[in-house]
Amino acid sequence: MVGRLVADGGTTVLIDGRSGSGKSTLADRLQQSWPSSEVVRLDDIYPGWDGLSWAREHVGNALLRPRAAGQPGRWRRWNWTTGAPHGWHVVAADRRLIVEGAGALSPSNRALADLGVWVETPDEVRKRRALQRDGDLYRPHWDRWAAQELDHLARCDPRAVADYIVTETDGGLRWAPVRD
Question: What InterPro entries does the record tag this protein with (predicted)?
Answer without folding.
Answer: P-loop_NTPase
